[in-house]
Amino acid sequence: MNLRDLRYLVALAEHKHFGRAAEACFVSQPTLSTQIKKIEDELGITLVERTPRRVLLTEAGMEIAQRAREVLNEVEQIRAIARRTRDPESGTVRMGIFPTLGPYLLPHVVPSLREQFPKLELLLTEEKTGALLRLLREGKLDAAIMALPLHDDSLHAEFLFEEPFVLAVPEQHALAARARISAADLDHVDLLLLEEGHCLRDQALAVCQDSGAGERAGFRATSLETLRQMVAANVGITLLPVLAIRPPVACAPNVRLLGFRAHPPSRRLAMVWRKSTAMGVFLKRLADVVRALPPHLLDPQPDPCTDPVPNGAAGFAR
């Protein structure tokens, strides 16, 4: 049994198909099948139930595939230690981020990351929170920027910042005349929310629970931009994280943005990585760069349509 054979088994566990697993490993299907049979012969047990239409791993096969995945992750950590020792700021970092944050945070931090770490290759993956956690645990991501709290003792969470929410309402809405609002103003008001799987949905539901607000029935958006356009179309009102109203995001017509008078609802964001990673010290340096956002970006009160556009932001309006 060698590392190559373990990769074949992990690929088969992920794809559940000999052809697709072989393609992912850049080998022929007979080669992969032969090596899987070799592992079974060496262990003296059946790992794979072969049926005409699909492949099923036995209970032992699934457990061994998970162990193989952990072994391969540890081997990658050994290589990462060597790379970081040769040149701490070079190499590749696979970073995850969720869709309601990525397009709004990255324009403000990627230029700084490039300046601080010019030799670093940053590979970004945008997925919902559940998928990011799975990819982290499987070793397919080195780190991810996620919302707290997280309940996983195998992960380290490096707090970055707290991002306030603002209320987006159509210009014709009764609340649009207010300069500021309080959470009590949302009592018995229905909000437009995102579909299941977005952490922002859970955060907005928590605000609803605290303020007495509800969810607008019959509609769930797939993105923040959909929510913004529904507000502009006078369909309803919603909560937006404050980075989603900052340049380079363009101001939406017919949308009034209202800050909260005191203690605005917010979400807490952190950079998360496995405690076992060999990259922890370097990831802490990355987190320090992301954390150093200009304070005005997280101010819950200013009117974004009158905020000056930062240098270099022109041309990025969405």
Task: Please give a handful of descriptors for the protein shown.
two-stranded antiparallel ribbon, alpha/beta, 12 strands, eight-stranded mixed beta sheet, 318 residues
Order of helices and strands: HHHEEHEHEHEEEEHEHEEEH
Tally of extended strands?
A: 12
Kindly, what is the distance between the CA atoms of the first and last residues, rounded to a whole number of angstroms? Answer: 52 Å
Shape: elongated
Helix content: 25-40%
Could you tell me the radius of gyration in angstroms? 24 Å
Mean pLDDT: 88
The biggest sheet, with number of strands, parallel, antiparallel or mixed sense and barrel status, is: 8 strands, mixed
| Proportion of residues in β-strands | 15-25%
Poorly predicted runs are 306-318
- Enumerate how many helices there are, as a single number: 9
> Structural class from helices and strands?
alpha/beta
Describe the protein in words.
By secondary structure, the protein is of the alpha/beta class. It has helices spanning 3-15, 18-25, 29-43, 59-86, 102-116, 129-137, 199-211, 224-232, 280-291; strands spanning 48-50, 55-57, 91-97, 120-126, 143-147, 155-170, 180-181, 190-194, 214-221, 238-241, 255-260, 266-274. Strands 3, 4, 5, 6, 7, 10, 11 and 12 form an eight-stranded mixed beta sheet that branches. Helix 1 crosses helix 2 (18-25). The longest helix has 28 residues, at 59-86. Residues 306-318 have low confidence and may be disordered.
